[in-house]
Amino acid sequence: MKRRVVITGMGVASPNAVGLADFRNAIREGRSGIRFFPELEKLKFKCQIGGKPEISEKMLQEYFSPLQLRGLNSSGIFYGVIAGKDAWKDAGLLIEEKEKPDWNSGIIFGTGILGVDKFREAIHLIDEGKTRRLGSTSVLQTMASGISAYLGGILGCGNQVTTNSSACTTGTEALLMGFDRISSGKAERMLVGSCADDGPYVWGGFDAMRILPANYNSTPEKASRPMSESAAGFVPGSGAGALLLEDLDSAKKRGAKIYAEVLGGEINSGGQRGGGSMTAANDEAVQRCIVKALENCSLKKDEIDGINGHLTATKGDVTEIKNWVNALGRKGKDFPLINSLKGMTGHCLSASGSIECVASVLQLSDNFIFPNINCEDLHPEIVKLITSENIPRETLQTEVKTIAKASFGFGDVNAVVIFKKYIA
């Protein structure tokens, strides 16, 4: 018999807020974290805006020891450790030095690319014949599993400690991987999440692809426009989200606060066939992923109350809504409430799924639906499929029982997780 899995802790470093309490307020208020960056203007980027968590030196000193900070130059590791430690503490777990690791706790914390600024620094030093000046942490900061390795050492986890990477699907995939490990009895607790670096050396490739908005440099908060007719491309973002998943019996035994239950989900790929490509989703695969997620959770199609979509503010938004309508067999007023966090944060790439999972769970636990911002002009093709009332533009104080969170990534990969309100 599979074990039930619940969420007992969360942490977040998002462009619009750092820390769970402030993030809760930010999404309720529809607060944007997208800003103009003079550095991007100097480098002649077309899109000179982005989403980046505001982290002070003082805050870093609260999360890292002086030794850990020595030579550390990876924004993704900064964000991931902040979110991960916060989630651990939020779950009521101690961070302490002990002789043996915690064999029942593990980590699956993903990323897309890590340590870009450290790579740049290393390349210059090596080319100048100054290899010895790289320092002892350059490998740890630039290996993909650097984030899980840092967290694993800080928290002393002795179960599986690893990093996954599946483009924009990374965070949601990490959560489902952690869910599987607990539900199968291989762990009691898994810290799951994902992080993303930021800056010109991460965002430059997307600017070169001309898929970022170039006309909002003077009005950055208006730039990310999911489901809008005037959407002009996604705004790049960064940060990290973390969730502490736990076996229900373990959580109840130690009297932990329970935010929500993870019912399960599905991960698949469109194989870059049938209309799918490196950058576009195979519609059949997306619909199969949604339907299979419901089947895995023993849910009927009319039991989904809310959807936190991938919805990036590109032409793919219309297609995504069509796929939800076809997969659920629900349209018009019968369609669930749907929202996208990316209007407030931009597209946080490999961190997007985990940050948006935190936002989804907060809606369940606190009985509200956060607003969609910057979509006053809803795309007419979307309005033909679902009513505008299904796309709240103001915060709704309402109780929902189930929320489906979806992530669709480059490489034609998909993940859907379903959260349920926990009732003791």
Report on the structure:
The structure is a single chain. The protein has 424 residues and is α/β, with parallel strands linked by helices. It has two domains: 5-260, Thiolase/Chalcone synthase (Peroxisomal Thiolase, Chain A, domain 1); 264-420, Peroxisomal Thiolase, Chain A, domain 1 (3-Layer(aba) Sandwich). It has 16 helices and 13 strands. The strands form two sheets. Strands 1, 2, 5, 6, 7, 8, 9, 10, 11, 12 and 13 form an eleven-stranded mixed β-sheet that branches. A two-stranded antiparallel sheet has the order 3-4. α12 (283-296) packs across α13. The longest helix has 16 residues, at 75-90. The model has no long low-confidence stretch (mean pLDDT 95).
Short description:
By secondary structure, the chain is of the alpha/beta class. The chain has helices spanning 20-29, 38-42, 57-63, 66-69, 75-90, 116-127, 138-142, 146-155, 170-183, 200-208, 248-253, 283-296, 316-328, 342-345, 352-366, 380-383; strands at 5-14, 17-18, 34-36, 49-51, 105-111, 161-162, 189-196, 239-247, 260-269, 306-308, 337-339, 402-409, 413-420.
